[in-house]
Amino acid sequence: MSRVLLLLTHQFPHDSGDAAFVRNEIAALAQEFDEVRIVSFWGEGVPALPLPPNCRYLGSVGRVTAARAFRGLISGRRLRTLWAVAARARRVGALKSADLRAMLVGMSVAQRLQQLGARHTPFESLTVYSFWGVDIAYSLPWFVRKQDAVATRVHRYDLDEESEGYRPLRPAVLGVTEVLLTISDAAQSYARERYSSYISPQRILVRRLGVPGPDAPPADASAPERVLVVSASSVIPLKRVDLILDALAEVARRGHAVAWTHFGDGPGLAAVRSRAAELVEELPLLDVAFPGRVPVQTILDHYAHAATTLFMNLSTIEGVPVSIMEAAAYGVPAVATDVGATREIVGSAFGSGVLVARDATVSEIADAVVDVVEHLDRFDARANWAERFDANENARAAAAAVADLNRG
């Protein structure tokens, strides 16, 4: 019997959004299954990435209009499932207007999956892997059959109701999910605490994301004449790029030559750029550069050739920052706020950098920067990446967890 994987994404294989993650898993998934069929939630108009030979992109769901939602209702099986989903939601006190909207989306997407040819034949064994726990995942209660194997991955956006708000259809989506893959220990604990009535805690597994790394780290950045600092994010309030600037200005005031490069743009960039110009005028030991939003490869090339001393991330909310993984792959330690699951990649226990409190002062952050700069021999961020965040190793582990649902 042919083993088929139906991979449900938000954008992949279009080179946008979750392509940054799925592209690292697709080869491992392709090795585990005879055929991989891919359906995305969005993506038209964005170039598609090349796929392994046994992978086939069926298309995207497209915008769920009122007419399409109505057509999704025209099915006896889906209507019976709707009644069961609504009844279960009422029993756990979770039936809200967001659930009703998600039900309409789920039925519409399920119908679209049928139209795209995602359903298997009697001679195929189907595993469904939703790379997210929301949006396209709302189709799972209406699309999957009892004989199908189902895996769902959750990140932070689609899991953390404290920072992201109510996530609808949890009982229904997790009720048909056989294994839930989380990206961190913190996410696993959160899911086990909140959702054990929908899915067995033993079926909630940590399967970390990761990033590819260079074959070898760049030249040693020990005893730098200048502290070469990189940050990479949108310039929005929760990323606190202005706080990075203030902290590095304080480091310069203490006598360290600092060259800071921030990759990324956003509504706050003009104000940060203006403040930086003032500080550079005031502090001869401070230099800044704002290349703007650039391809990820540009940032990686910077690590490869600029002997970067330190990466900084002072966000107020995070999952496991991919930007820190990328820096670590090139041997760059980090100073980062202790939020979300950042402590699972940054900290003295890993030799990968220094954590600061979310409400740390400018002086305290500067202390952490100086601590790293003056003790670079204590840090081996690349070793931590190789052990915990190597994309190839993590992809194989995630693909095996999905494939194990339907082995034999």
Main pleated-sheet profile: 7 strands, parallel
Task: Say what the CATH topology of the largest domain is.
Answer: Rossmann fold
**Helical content (DSSP H or I, runs of 4+):** 25-40%
* Uncertain residue segments: none
- Return Rg in Å: 23 Å
Number of helices: 16
Number of strand elements: 13
Strand order of the largest sheet: 3-2-1-4-5-6-7
> Strand-and-helix sequence, N→C?
EHHEEHHHEHEHHEHEEHEHEHEHEEHHH
Mean pLDDT: 91
Highest-level CATH class of the largest domain: Alpha Beta
Structural class: alpha/beta
Terminal residue distance? 10 Å
Strand content: 15-25%
Query: Based on the structure given, which CATH architecture of the largest domain is correct?
Result: 3-Layer(aba) Sandwich
Number of domains: 2
Shape: elongated
The named CATH superfamily of the largest domain: Glycogen Phosphorylase B
InterPro entries: Glycosyltransferase_grp1
Protein name: Glycosyltransferase
EC number: 2.4.-.-
GO molecular function: glycosyltransferase activity
Please give a structural write-up.
- With 408 residues, the chain is an alpha/beta fold.
- It folds into 2 domains: 2-210 and 390-406, Glycogen Phosphorylase B (Rossmann fold), CATH 3.40.50; 227-388, Glycogen Phosphorylase B (Rossmann fold).
- Helices cover 39% and strands 17% of the residues.
- It contains 16 helices and 13 strands.
- The chain has a 7-stranded parallel beta sheet with strand order 3-2-1-4-5-6-7.
- Helix 3 packs across helix 5, helix 4 runs antiparallel to helix 5 (97-115) and helix 10 packs parallel to helix 11.
- The longest helix has 19 residues, at 97-115.
- The radius of gyration is 23 Å and the shape is elongated.
- The chain starts with a strand and ends in a 5-residue tail after the last helix.
- The model has no long low-confidence stretch (mean pLDDT 91).
